[in-house]
Design a protein that fits this description.
Helix content is about 30%, strand content about 20%. By secondary structure, the chain is α/β, with parallel strands linked by helices. It has one domain: Rossmann fold, CATH 3.40.50.850. It has a six-stranded parallel sheet, sandwiched between helices. Strand 5, helix 5 and strand 6 form a beta-alpha-beta unit. It starts with a strand and ends in a 10-residue tail after the last strand. Keywords: Hydrolase. InterPro entries: Isochorismatase-like_dom, Isochorismatase-like_hydrls, Isochorismatase-like_sf. This is Cysteine hydrolase family protein. GO terms for molecular function: hydrolase activity.
């Protein structure tokens, strides 16, 4: 049976994208993939972070214009790095018959990785979009323990190229190479 996909667009909000490494390129990759998903009948799920620094209704909390949810898109608000925790995302995907999630967004090491691994733990196959996730720009003032942004993204791409998960299919694909299977 072929997979039934859903595209997750995680935390691509004005405040986070303002901090993002390769922001324009990442937004463009996700926007192109979102358009292809909609055309193929694949659900697009826009996940928004909500907390004391990301207050609903504020400019920083808004999804960037290029990725604003369109009619028919689904929106899930979260309060933790895990897009599944206390959000109803799992029930929504189950109701749609989704068996595979395509993960994009911000930030690679936190919300993207946490959501990707939770998807695997919840029984979904996984596609991580190599050019569709990013992290914050790192400056000389940042903690010296942080890896430069380009190396961090590359490290997570390498991880998802090689990670094994019993009973799950895990793939890393460029946005242009993602295969879309309607739910």
């Amino acid at each position: 049976m072929p997979p039934r996909s859903a595209l997750l667009v995680i935390d691509m909000q004005n405040a986070t994208v303002a901090l993002a490494h390769r922001a324009a390129e990442t937004v463009a990759a996700i926007a192109g993939l979102s358009a292809r998903a909609r055309a193929a009948g694949v659900p697009v799920v826009v996940v928004r972070q909500r907390d004391e620094s990301m207050v609903p209704g504020t400019e920083g909390w808004q999804v960037v214009p290029e990725l604003t949810p369109l009619e028919g898109d689904l929106v899930v608000d979260k309060t933790t790095p895990d897009s599944f925790l206390d959000t109803g995302l799992d029930a929504l995907l189950t109701e749609l018959g989704v068996t595979e999630v395509i993960v994009t967004g911000f930030a690679t090491e936190i919300c993207v990785d946490t959501t990707a691994r939770q998807a695997l733990s919840r029984g979904y196959d996984l596609v991580v979009v190599a050019d569709g996730h990013t992290t914050s720009v790192r400056t000389a003032q940042d903690d010296g323990d942080l890896m430069p942004a380009d190396r961090s993204v590359a490290q997570y791409n390498a991880l998802y190229r090689s990670i094994g998960w019993p009973g799950r299919r895990v793939r890393l694909r460029a946005a242009a190479d993602v295969e879309l299977s309607p739910a």
